[in-house]
Input
Amino acid sequence: MALTGTDRDIYIVGVAEAPLGEVMDQSELSMIALAAREALVDAGLTMSDVDGLFVNYMGEEGSVQVGEYLGIQPSYADSSDLGGAAFVAFLGHASAAIQTGRCKVALIVYASRQRTRASRKLNHWNSKATSSQFEQPYGLPAPLGQFGLLAARHMYEYGTTAEQLASVAVGARQWAGMNPKAWKRDPLTVDDVLASRMISDPLHRMDCCLVTDGGGAIVVTSGARARDMANTPIRVAGTGESHHQWHIPQLPSLDASPGVASARAAIQMAGITRSDVDVFEPYDATTMSVLLALEDVGFCARGESGSFVEAGNLLPGGSLPSITSGGGLSYCHPGALGILLVIETVRQLRGQAQQRQVPRATIGVVHGIGGLFSTAATAVLVRD
Amino acid sequence: MTELSEHIIDWADPTTEFFWNAAREQRLVIQQCAACHSYQFYPRPFCLSCDSDAIEWVSACGFGTVYSRTIVHLPAAPELGLTSPYVAAIVELDEGPRLLTNLVSETCTIGSRVHVLWRPRKGQAPAPVFGPADDAGELRQ
Output
């Protein structure tokens, strides 16, 4: 299918990872700048073309700081705070901004050095949040404790097993083995996961994501503009987001995950069915996050994700190749993983994923979550 | 309403002081709407179900059921007074609202009936935690 080439259709035209892993020789700002320049080169654009900036977690008036560092004066900026899902949600926000003429070329960027700075804290209660006084006393290690509670309940309701959870991590590692940029590439077994240290029962250390430095950049523009780009443009066919609870007891049930609404909206907007999806990139903060994502997006019925994963459906050659970069579990998790999920999906749909390429991938779904299982943002990406 | 205790540091605010003052008397209180009778926790200035202002503090019966629990094997912040491993849980009160808490016994699992207990905290109001309902005299069915 040819590009439709109208201002209503929105395309990702450039992507790049920032330096990943352990980044000793850059700052967060310079990582963003390097990724932004590379993504613009990937698109065939320059920094001066950028008039929309979508960024968060860069400090006070972070979009201003980043804009100044990049030497641009955007006419539009957005720092909506969805946690790790923000950079998936920004695809929808950028689409709306372009469609309404607020900007023409949107740059989505993120970087962190949470590993190098050892800044990751498991109990990040905000003393200014009125409601935290009712949770802080109990030592739930956010966000892993929230996923421990979700996993325990999922096991209780549906008979999900620790082995099934572990098989998510094993699959992610298998993909990571084909990604030269992955932090962890050694083979991993279910027994390895189960033998790793217990963190928040039933989640073991290897059910939980990496803590690495990293980031990335994504360039988004209109169909009219995308025709002239250097690489195959990937259409943002559907987006959805949902903002739910901050405190996990306020989640009414496992059926009420924020991802249910975000996925339904994105899939409906794109006009696809779930069986059309060639590649799936769920936000794998933990193995449990992946099971919930599979059910929330609707790739399997509630309660069936454990057996779905155990049957190998997410693996290379499986019915739903997923976590194809190795994900947050084995490739890179810089605190907000969403941007890297989008980048991987674009590479898969362009056919640039090298050894780990999913054959004939034309439709991808990115499913981001954020906060304390608080938010979700889903995007359907399509190669026309 | 009694005066805001000097022992409640950092966390309590004008909308929650009633809860923490009751906690000092080892009473678990939640809000109930006089118009639609819904219960809610944590407190808000009106009923989330029907928007009514007719919101009242009432004593919860103190019984509930464990909705989920996780045994945490990481060290807790020292000021919490928790020794790893400890059990963090979501308890559904019999009135309906759920809250995050600790279970004092690993014998309490998902579906277990539990009853409120109070954990003293240095310089702060005691925190509601939960233990087996049997210990509070609830009859087995």
About this structure: The helical segments of chain B are 17-24. The mean pLDDT of chain B is 90. The interface with chain A takes residues 10-13, 15-16, 20, 41-42, 67-74, 76-77, 80, 82, 85-86, 88-90, 97-102, 110-111, 119, 121, 127, 129 of chain B (CB under 8 Å). Chain B has one domain: 17-134.
